[in-house]
UniProtKB/TrEMBL annotation, chains A, B:
Keyword Nucleotidyltransferase: no
Biased composition (Low complexity): 50-60
Pfam family, one: ADH_N_2
Protein name per UniProt: Enoyl reductase (ER) domain-containing protein
Keyword Oxidoreductase among UniProt keywords: yes
Compositionally biased residues, Polar residues: 29-39
Domain of life: Eukaryota
Biased composition regions of type Basic residues, renumbered to the chain: 69-81
GO MF annotations in UniProt: 2-alkenal reductase [NAD(P)H] activity
Region feature (Disordered): 26-81
Keyword line: Oxidoreductase
Listed InterPro entries: ADH-like_C (IPR013149), ADH_N_2 (IPR041694), ER (IPR020843), GroES-like_sf (IPR011032), MDR_fam (IPR045010), NAD(P)-bd_dom_sf (IPR036291)
C-alpha cells in the first residue's frame, strides 16, 4: 500500500521529472564535505546566525514579519502547545511516535486555484487542511518531508499559466498545492540517499508535509552552521543561479562594466558581490529609493538607480556607463533589455536569468533593439540553475567561507506562516520584498 | 605630395579603421600558401571556371546580366578600344605608362546621395566620373586599386542610415562613393605587403579605381585557380561568415537540426552545405519557389519552404522540425526570429548573422518570444566575419579543396557594370538575387 499525501503532489513530481531530465548527472554528494558534516543532531545555530546576519546587513530585514511568533498553523494536530520549546519537544516525540505508526496528521496546504492571466492575486491561492500519513510506504523510494522554509521565486508565476511544453516546464495543476524550492526535514525515508532527521533543500510542496516519491531534486544539507533559510537563497537555487550566471555564463574579466537589474533581489544582490572582488564596475537598478540605498551603501555597488524614476532608461544607462556595458545580468526583460541593448560594448555578454517584468503579460512586450547584438557581437544566453546542480558542492566550497567570514552580505525578507505565502509571492511582482523572499512554515 | 582619388574616400578609411580595431591580430599571410601561389602573371582561369560553375549549379545564374559584354564604362579614358583582348592589352600598356607618370585618368564612381530612410531606391545613388592619378604618393603607405568585382551585401544598408557609433560602424558619407568588399588589382603600392599586379580582396570603393591609404583590410589573393569573383563570396567575407557562424558560433554537433533563413543567399547556401556533411538535418527558408527548388534539388537541403507562402511561420517550423531546432542561422530577424524562438530545443544556439527584414524599417519590429531563451537555455550570439579574418587562411585550406573537387556548390548572381550596382544592391531587399550578388566593374 502506498501512503499518500492528501491533495495532489503530482506537480512536485512533474517538476522533479523535468529537472531530472536537464541535470546532466546525478547530484554528486561530495565525500569530503560529508566528513566535515556536523552530526545530524548537533546544535543548530540558524536562529542566532539569522539574527547576526540581520544586524550586519539592513534594517529592512528586521521587519515585523520576521519577528512574528511561531505561527499556530505549524502545530501538528493533537499536539498540546505550551510555549515554543515545549511544543517543539512534544512535536518531536509525537512525530516519532506517529511516524512509526504511519498515523495521519493534519497537513495545511496552499492550493493553486486555477490558471492565472494578468497580475496574480492572493485569491489565486487558498489555504486548506488535508491529512498526511507520516510514514513512507515500504514499496516506495520516497521521502516524507516536514517543510521548514519555502522560497518565493518569480519563475513560479510562469507555472501559473496554462501552457504545455514550455521548455519542459509544466504548469501547476489547479486544485493542487503550489510547488517550489524549500528547506525541509526528512521525517521518514525509503530512499537510500536520505534518512530520518536529514535536512534537505530542493523541490517540495507549499504545505506542511510533502511526500516526495522521486526525490531527484532534493539535496542533503551538510553545513548547518549557517541559517537554514539560506538554502532557499544564497546557498540554494538563487545562489547557484547568481554563481553560474556570473562566473559561467557571463565570462567575466577583471575590471569589466557590469549592470544588474532587480539588483537587490535574491540573485542580483549576490551577482554584484561576486563582481566587485573581480575589480568590476558594478551598477544595479531597483524599484525604490530604499533599495538603491541598500545597493550603494550596504552591498558595495558602485552605482545604482531607481528605474521607476528614470523616464529614459537609455539615458540612465549612458549616465552610469559612458563607456558601455560588458556584462548585463538580466532579471527583468522588456524595456530595460531594450535600453541595455543600445548600451552594450563590443563582445558584451547578457546572462538571461529572468524577465520578471513580462511574466504577468499575456503578450510579452516586443524587444526592438536586437540588431545591436550583431553590431556589437553580443552574446545573450538563457540559463537556469538546474543545469548547474552538479556544481553545487563546488559552489558551496566557494560561498560558505565568504558567508562565515562576513565577506558577503545576504539580505532576506522573511514572513512567518504558510498563510502569508500568497501575499509574499505576489509581492515579488510589486517590488515589495527587499532581498530574498522566504516563507517560514516551521522553524524545526 | 599625396596623390588623391577624386571624390571622397573617407568612408573606406573609416571602415578600415573600424575593422582594424576589431581584428585581433594582423592578417597572417601563410608562407606555405605563398609557395603554392601561381605566379602573378600566370594564366587566369576565372572565366572558364565561372562558366563551369554556372553549368554545374543552376540556370538562374546564367542570366542575361552574366552574358552582358564587358561594359564600355570600364574603359580607361583615352584608350582606344577595338575588341576586348586588344582593349585589355592596350589598357595594361597605358596603365603602366600612366602609373609611372602619375597621370590622371577618369574614374567612374557610384556616389551615395544622402541618408536613406525606408526602402532604398536606385536614386539614392548616382554615377559620376571624377579623375584619379594612377600613382601612390611617395610619402604614403597606400595602394592604388583597380576594382574588378564588387560585393552587394545587406549590411551596407545599415551604413546608409544616419547614425553614430553603432558598434563602431560609421554611416556612409553623402557625396562620397559607396564602399564595400570587393576584388581588385594593385596598380601601384607604397605598402610593403602589396606590389603592383597583386590581386586582393577586402574593403574598397564602388568606383573604378580606389586609393586605399591604410590597407589593413585588404588581403592578397594567393589562389587564382578559382573564379576571382568568388573572393566576394564563398572565399571572402560571406564565406568566412558562413564558416565562422556555423563552426565557431553555432557549436554544431553531429545530427543536429539546423534551420537557415535567407538560405539561398550568399551565406545561407554555404551554411547548409557545411551542415550536411555533419549529418545534420537541414531546412532553409527562402522567398520564392525557384529558390526553394534550388535549396532542395541543387544544394542538398533536406527541406525548404517559401516563407512568403506560409501564413503561420510557427506552424511551418513545427511541420519541418517536429522535434525542434538545435541551430538557427539567423539572416532575417523579425517575425521569423519570433517563430524560431518558439521552436528551439533546449540548449539550442542562434547564430545571429543578419536581420535583413529589419534594415529598411525606421523602428525595427518587436521580438516577443525572448522568454523562450530562458526556458530552453538558448544562446543567441551576434557575430561578424571581421572578427575571424585572422582565421581566413585556415578557412581557405578547408574550403578551396571542396570547390576544386566540386563538393560544394556555389551560386552567384552577377551583373556587369558599375551602373548596375544600385539595382543589384536594392534587389537584395526584394529577394531579386539568386545566390551571391556581384557587380563586375572590370574583369581584369
Amino acid at each position: 500500500m502506498t501512503l499518500s499525501v492528501s491533495g495532489g503532489h503530482g506537480a512536485v513530481e512533474r517538476i522533479n521529472r523535468f529537472l531530472r531530465r536537464i541535470i546532466t548527472g546525478r547530484y554528486p554528494h561530495q565525500q569530503q564535505q560529508e566528513n566535515n558534516h556536523p552530526k545530524q543532531n548537533s546544535k543548530r545555530f540558524e536562529q542566532e546566525n539569522t539574527k547576526t546576519q540581520q544586524q550586519k546587513t539592513n534594517k529592512t530585514i528586521q521587519a515585523d514579519d520576521r519577528r512574528t511568533p511561531h505561527p499556530k498553523s505549524v502545530k501538528p494536530r493533537r499536539l498540546a502547545v505550551s510555549g515554543r520549546c515545549r511544543k517543539l519537544r512534544l512535536s518531536e516525540e509525537n512525530r516519532q511516535r506517529m511516524a512509526s505508526s504511519g498515523e495521519e496528521v493534519s497537513n495545511k496546504q496552499l492550493i493553486f486555484r486555477d490558471y492565472v492571466t494578468g497580475f496574480p492575486q492572493e485569491s489565486d491561492m487558498y489555504v486548506t487542511t488535508g491529512t498526511v500519513k507520516l510514514k513512507v510506504s515500504e514499496d516506495s523510494n520516497g521521502v516524507l518531508l516536514k517543510n521548514l522554509y519555502l522560497s518565493c521565486d518569480p519563475y513560479m508565476r510562469i507555472l501559473m499559466k496554462k501552457q504545455e511544453g514550455v521548455g519542459g516546464f509544466s504548469s501547476y495543476t489547479p486544485g493542487s498545492p503550489l510547488t517550489g524550492f524549500g528547506v525541509s526535514k526528512v521525517l521518514d525515508s525509503r530512499n537510500p540517499e536520505f534518512k530520518e532527521g536529514d535536512l534537505v533543500w530542493g523541490i517540495t510542496g507549499w504545505e506542511e508535509y510533502s511526500l516526495i516519491t522521486n526525490p531527484q531534486v532534493l539535496f542533503k544539507i551538510l553545513h548547518t552552521d549557517v541559517p537554514l533559510s539560506y538554502y532557499t537563497g544564497i546557498l540554494g537555487m538563487p545562489g547557484l543561479t547568481a554563481y553560474a550566471g556570473f562566473y559561467e555564463v557571463s565570462s567575466p574579466k577583471k575590471g569589466e562594466n557590469v549592470f544588474i537589474s532587480a539588483a537587490s533581489g535574491a540573485v542580483g544582490q549576490l551577482v554584484g558581490q561576486f563582481a566587485k572582488p573581480m575589480g568590476c564596475y558594478v551598477v544595479g537598478s531597483a524599484g525604490s529609493k530604499d533599495k538603491v540605498d541598500l545597493l550603494k551603501n550596504k552591498l558595495g555597488f558602485d552605482e545604482a538607480f531607481n528605474y521607476k524614476e528614470e523616464h529614459d532608461l537609455d539615458a540612465a544607462l549612458k549616465r552610469c556607463f559612458p563607456e558601455g556595458i560588458d556584462i548585463y545580468f538580466e532579471n527583468v526583460g522588456g524595456k530595460m533589455l531594450d535600453a541595455v541593448l543600445l548600451n552594450m560594448r563590443p563582445h558584451g555578454r547578457i546572462a538571461v536569468c529572468g524577465m520578471i517584468s513580462q511574466y504577468n503579460l499575456d503578450q510579452p512586450e516586443g524587444v526592438h533593439n536586437l540588431m545591436s547584438i550583431i553590431y556589437k557581437r553580443v552574446r545573450l544566453e538563457g540559463f537556469g540553475a538546474p543545469d548547474y546542480f552538479p556544481q553545487h558542492p563546488k559552489f558551496l566550497d566557494i560561498v560558505l567561507p565568504y558567508i562565515r567570514e562576513g565577506k558577503i552580505k545576504y539580505i532576506e525578507d522573511i514572513v512567518e506562516g504558510l498563510e502569508k505565502g500568497p501575499g509574499a509571492f505576489i509581492g515579488l511582482f510589486k517590488g515589495q520584498n527587499v532581498g530574498k523572499q522566504v516563507v517560514v512554515v516551521a522553524r524545526e
